[in-house]
């Protein structure tokens, strides 16, 4: 009996010790999770920026652990979709474009920002309405604007000099004539260096976005708002014909570029193309990969795409507070100057003096000092926008390989009508088509 | 009583395997069938039942039709290229190299089958590269114009067929060699005494007797052909300089609809169509080869 009692006491003590140990562990875990942040980014080049922001928060949050997970954009989008629908553990700061975030907001998968953050974002001294609108929905704020993708022309100044060109093209017609002059060819006349690298191949929506940028110069758009939350395509028209015709002329008539040629930033950095249109991150990329490249940038003839990216916070209660603090800290003037200087993405916050960066790197001027009346457009914040762009891209890739379209306006119009009808079908399916 | 105990033992022994099979194979198939009848969006809270609407939409979806046509061409292309080549190579290895070299040849031809898909596809992507690839270098050496292998949609499909056949060949050869080893030697000796030549023995004895092997290899090759994904993805999509969505295959289309457009129900209906096609073709293959076997 005595033994049994002793055993019971020992068991009770063991239980109490275990419970205390478990409680200590749990409380420790709770403390850790309160100051452990995960940052999900779709741009690997942004990782050093977020680490820099985390470093700056050390004074206020000495125990803060920030884990930055920056992966390729498409994989990031899949991760966000599965992570948010599957139930996200802990606090995660998520980088998303306003157009992509819409579907999460519509389904209550991302929480509203706390009052102080909402006030910060809504303050016009901090952000233009264009940016605060893309970070919210229905008058509520869900994200903190951070940076944007905005296009400009990059051109190789050595190649321009060799071709007798002294300034950047100012009209779309000049883009084509410049491209002819800048193209280098082998003995058989085949282009070895493209005059103007246009996005002709690949599988993503980038083809459609780049086409939209060029078409914007002619006044067309893949989608335009039609009131009451409805949308309609606006490219089966003269603007669409002019834009597509310009692509086809460059590919099949003047042969300044081919789908097989090296393209985009890599080609520009290697001297395999003389001109191309891209966002400001290329400046940082050139600084790293081709620091001796002689180049300049110029605004586009009429305007550019502007794709704002925001920071959202997945998490609940007090744990999420530090996530919002991180998003706000990322927007401190010092950090934004660091972002522009070291990464090259354009910050969205107003009232920050970037002259220290732009004076050192004149290539930023085309992105910051654009002409008066420069017209920006952005992707509509609708659920099927990526599907629409991907499907238009699929059509465009087929067109870029079809020589019979070049010089045949009727065929071009029929092609544009077919692509436009497909966009309308998707809009109708989602209840977004204008009548 | 003993018989009953054996039955119970047999059922208990097989139960874990059956349970795993049901969980990882049968349940996903059944769930895919269910999902195909819903507008099942990953993000949306509402997932309404839409009946056969997804299937009706599929019939008018040109990307799906393109993917279906491409996949079918690739699957049959691989089948047509692989089976005769595997049969001939297996016969040569079995009959001509009855030495230590046979093992070497078997290993050499089997290696592509065990190489990971993506690195293999990357290597072939370099081979087919229009500017730097050795294939075009070889063509131009013989005065043949260089080709845009990975941009032209027709040539890209041929490239995928070549890559898939290269990978499928080793397995098919190995299975055929096993088949050759099990053929009765006495029949060949009798044929030889009757004056049959080597090719005649191959045509009139080996091929008919290898029909069960051919059936198995052709079913496996066709099914894997319909599941082509990584090869098409690496060779012909997403990267610049590739023909993008022109060389679309079914699995790639499903992936895009599920995880990019979040239309899981719609992607499930594509999976159901793929299942029906593969099942149908397998049954046709079985019935055709069995009928011929009886004849």
Q: What does this 3D model show about the protein?
A:
Chain A is α+β, with helices and mostly antiparallel strands and 435 residues long. Chain A is built from 18 helices and 16 strands. In chain A, the strands form five sheets. In chain A, strands 1, 2, 3, 6, 14, 15 and 16 form a seven-stranded mixed beta sheet that branches. Chain A has a three-stranded antiparallel beta sheet with strand order 12-7-13. In chain A, strands 4-5 form a two-stranded antiparallel sheet. The longest helix of chain A is centred in the N-terminal third of the chain and has 33 residues, at 2-34. Chain B is mostly helical and 295 residues long. The longest helix of chain B is centred in the first third of the chain and has 35 residues, at 62-96. The mean pLDDT of chain B is 88. Classes of the chains: A alpha+beta (435), B mainly alpha (295).
């Amino acid at each position: 009996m005595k033994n049994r009692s002793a055993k019971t006491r020992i068991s009770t003590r063991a239980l109490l010790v275990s419970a205390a140990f478990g409680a200590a562990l749990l409380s420790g875990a709770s403390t850790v999770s309160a100051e452990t942040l995960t940052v999900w980014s779709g741009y690997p080049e942004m990782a050093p920026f977020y680490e820099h922001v985390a470093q700056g928060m050390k004074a206020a949050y000495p125990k803060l652990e920030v884990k930055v997970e920056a992966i390729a954009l498409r994989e990031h989008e899949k991760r966000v979709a599965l992570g948010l629908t599957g139930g996200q553990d802990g606090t995660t700061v998520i980088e998303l474009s306003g157009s992509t975030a819409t579907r999460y907001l519509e389904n209550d998968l991302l929480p509203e920002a706390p009052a102080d953050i909402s006030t910060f974002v809504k303050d016009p001294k901090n952000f233009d309405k264009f940016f605060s609108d893309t970070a919210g929905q229905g008058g509520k704020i869900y994200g903190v604007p951070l940076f944007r993708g905005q296009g400009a022309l990059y051109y190789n100044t050595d190649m321009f000099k060799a071709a007798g060109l002294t300034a950047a093209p100012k009209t779309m017609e000049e883009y084509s004539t410049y491209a002819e002059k800048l193209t280098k060819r082998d003995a058989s006349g085949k282009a070895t260096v493209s005059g103007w690298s246009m996005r002709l191949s690949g599988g993503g929506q980038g083809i459609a976005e780049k086409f939209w940028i060029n078409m914007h110069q002619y006044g067309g758009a893949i989608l335009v708002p039609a009131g009451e939350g409805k949308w309609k395509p606006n490219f089966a028209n003269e603007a669409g014909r002019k834009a597509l015709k310009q692509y086809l002329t460059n590919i099949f008539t003047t042969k300044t570029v081919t789908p097989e040629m090296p393209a985009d930033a890599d080609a520009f950095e290697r001297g395999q193309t003389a001109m191309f249109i891209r966002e400001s991150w290329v400046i940082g990329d050139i600084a790293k990969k081709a620091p001796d490249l002689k180049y300049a940038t110029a605004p586009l003839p009429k305007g550019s795409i502007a794709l704002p990216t925001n920071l959202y916070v997945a998490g609940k209660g007090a744990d999420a507070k530090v996530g919002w603090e991180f998003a706000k800290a990322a927007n401190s003037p010092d950090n934004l100057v660091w972002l522009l200087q070291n990464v090259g993405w354009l910050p969205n916050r107003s009232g920050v003096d970037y002259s220290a960066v732009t004076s050192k790197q004149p290539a930023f001027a085309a992105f910051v000092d654009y002409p008066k009346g420069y017209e920006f457009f952005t992707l509509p914040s609708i659920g099927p926008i990526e599907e629409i762009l991907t499907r238009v891209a699929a059509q465009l890739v087929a067109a870029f390989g079809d020589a019979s379209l070049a010089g045949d306006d009727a065929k071009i119009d029929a092609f544009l009508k077919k692509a436009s009808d497909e966009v309308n079908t998707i809009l109708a399916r989602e209840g977004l088509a204008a009548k | 009583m003993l018989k009953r105990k054996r039955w119970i033992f047999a059922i208990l022994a097989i139960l874990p395997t059956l349970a795993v099979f049901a969980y990882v194979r049968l349940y996903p198939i059944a769930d895919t069938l269910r999902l195909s009848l819903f507008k099942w969006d990953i993000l949306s809270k509402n997932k309404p039942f839409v009946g056969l609407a997804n299937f009706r939409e599929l019939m008018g979806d040109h990307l799906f039709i393109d993917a279906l046509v491409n996949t079918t061409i690739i699957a049959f292309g691989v089948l047509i290229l692989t089976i005769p080549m595997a049969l001939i190579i297996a016969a040569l290895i079995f009959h001509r190299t009855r030495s230590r070299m046979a093992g070497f040849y078997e290993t050499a031809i089997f290696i592509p089958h065990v190489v990971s898909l993506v690195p293999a596809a990357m290597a072939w992507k370099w081979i087919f590269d229009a500017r730097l690839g050795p294939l075009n270098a070889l063509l131009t050496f013989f005065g043949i114009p260089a080709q845009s292998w990975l941009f032209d949609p027709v040539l890209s499909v041929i490239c995928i067929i070549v890559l898939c056949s290269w990978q499928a060949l080793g397995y098919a050869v190995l299975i055929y060699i096993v088949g050759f080893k099990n053929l009765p030697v006495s029949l060949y000796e009798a044929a030889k005494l009757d004056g049959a030549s080597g090719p005649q023995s191959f045509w009139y004895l080996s091929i008919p007797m290898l029909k069960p092997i051919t059936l198995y290899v052709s079913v496996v090759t066709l099914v894997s052909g319909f599941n082509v994904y990584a090869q098409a993805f690496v060779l012909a999509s997403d990267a610049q300089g590739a023909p993008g969505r022109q060389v679309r295959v079914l699995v790639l289309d499903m992936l895009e609809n599920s995880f990019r457009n979040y239309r899981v129900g719609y992607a499930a209906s594509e999976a159901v169509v793929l299942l029906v096609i593969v099942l149908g073709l397998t049954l046709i293959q079985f019935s055709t080869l069995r009928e011929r076997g009886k004849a």
